[in-house]
Amino acid sequence: MARSPDTRGLANALAVLYPLGEIGHQTGADPLMLGAFAPPAALAAWVGTHKKHASHRYSATVAATAAAIPAWLATAAQLGIVNLRTLLAYTISASVTWSAYTWSDVLKQRRAWAREQLKWDELATAAGLEGSRLVGMDDTRLGVRFRVDVRATNKRASQLAGNGKGLAEDIAAQIGLPAERVRITTDDKHAGIIRVLVQMTDPWEGPVLHPAMPAHPDRATVPASREQIAAARRSIKGTPLVVGMDPDTGTDMTVTLFDHEGGHHAFIVAPTGSGKTTLYNNLIEQATTCTDVLVWGIDLGKGTIGRFWGPALDASAGIGEEKKALAILRWARTVVEERSKDSGGKNHIPSPEEPVILVFVDELDTLTGMHSPIAYEAKEHVEQIWRRGRSAGVELLTASQRGVQQYTGSKDPNANADYRIVLRMKRASEMGNAIEDWEGAGMPNMATYARGVKGVALVVDGENTWTAGRVRDLSDLNAVEDLAKRRGAPVATLEPAIAAKLPGYADRHRTPAHTGSRTGGGTGGHTPGHDDPGPTAARPASGGDGFGVDPGDHDAVDRLAGELVAEVEARLRDMPEPPEQGIPLADLVKANQSIKVPDDAARTILDLLTERGPDGARRDELVTALDKPESTVKKWLAAMRSHDLITRHGSTKAARYYLPDHHPDNHTQ
């Protein structure tokens, strides 16, 4: 009782109450008057204790005790205490009250808290936090989180959290845990309190399973029926995409790509081997279930997106398909412009007929990096999508090995991406390139976070709120390929008026006829169902029409026929009537003058002709110097002649090109 104020106070009260009853008897106190205080005393005790502790059992005990006091005084005033029956009744009642109170849940919690406080005092002393006080403790999924008042330690909470590595190591050493399983942060609601998270259980014992994958390696994935696939369809509006799990709380790590505020871009920094493909698989898997989303993929580095997700994508570009990648970017930019014209910049509302466009770009440096051959053209489109795409429902998700401008092409990813996702880093110095002031916000260092564990990620939203954990395991590419085939083509369709303005969009699924088998086993940028039927897709029979469908697959034939009809109608709808007269030669010259010659190509041609002087140069020599297809060089030369920048003498392959001053007709013999 000496260490428990609650029970000590109750014991003293019970000892004093017995003689008080005799005083009331000797003074002739009115028993009815004393007993009348019992109901209000019980009510007041119940209200006061239940509001504070929210325990029915404890409040009932205190209310009964409060009511028993006036009841006892009334009984003793009537009968006196100098008799065996009164003594026996009081002893039994006091014992019951004592037991009910001391073993109530509130008192048990207080005793447990006192023990924890004592343990913390010992731990704090060993860790150099003398004077700190434990003010809160919460059980977590893997251990416990302490809230500690450090105002009496003469140290700021931010100092302890900022230098938390040493303090965490001291606390972990006392408990007998690895240093990484103790983390120290400040409290958002009190500047004098720190939070100490202790993971008693290893958070990385097993992978985070993906619901679409088998729970056990030996258990085969059960193919979903068409009804099950249809039932899984949903809308992108307000739907968070789950990418992993926070091991401390067991809550999901999510990315919301579209909500009431419009769309949200995402910028991913993922060095080689950090698990970026698995992260992309998680995002694409959920995006392709949405009824109001079309996914376009650009992966010029490895071609993984198109190779394995091809059947579920609306368009994709892989290795060696730079022209197709630029076409996709132009389509996305056109969608932004056309929708913005109609809405005036108002947030787009997605539907299956007007879907959100998610443009996934992997290996961003191959598209906009300093060594990309198409960066000069791609950057302009990408920057406009970063800056204007959100409200038009066109969202960019780009992945780069580093967060520096040499890889990203501009500062737009950091400026305009609402979500920034950082996977395993090789060096701590790279963290600042991806997320500024990450240390001040208390984010983990992804170069040291969960050492030796694969597939960890830090997800930061537009308000700088972050979660860290492990990405769902969707690394089995064979299972991913099978999943994409079963999911099939997107449900959503682009607005016909906009689709008609996208050059080549109607032809994106057409494939040439194939004879023989494809060689090689790499990804090669080929998209099953897009650029190549793939090793398991049906191929047209010899002498077939070359549209890449199995003539025996009636559903595929019907679908293709419908697409052909829609395409023909779209192309004929706005086609002008043929002119009554042919186009004059002067007009053809004007049209030729509209051809744009790249500055570097024009400079190369002019420099070579300047060097050759009156000797000039043949077309094949110019083709060699430019290292471009002959047809392209012919167009450029014709355009430069139309602008009188160069001249030509002769009309066969032996014809030579000159600067105007060096043309043979300008020189006398």
Describe this protein's structure:
Residues 216-222 and 511-546 have low confidence and may be disordered. It is built from 24 helices and 20 strands. The strands form 4 sheets. Strands 5, 6, 7, 10, 11, 12, 13, 14, 15, 16 and 17 form an 11-stranded mixed beta sheet that branches. It has a 4-stranded antiparallel beta sheet with strand order 1-2-4-3. It has a 3-stranded antiparallel beta sheet with strand order 18-20-19. A hairpin with a 5-residue loop joins strand 16 and strand 17 (466-473). The chain starts with a helix and ends in an 11-residue tail after the last strand. The chain is elongated and about 145 Å long. 43% of the residues lie in helices and 15% in strands. Helix 1 packs parallel to helix 4 (56-79) and helix 1 (5-27) runs antiparallel to helix 5 (84-102). By secondary structure, it is α/β, with parallel strands linked by helices.
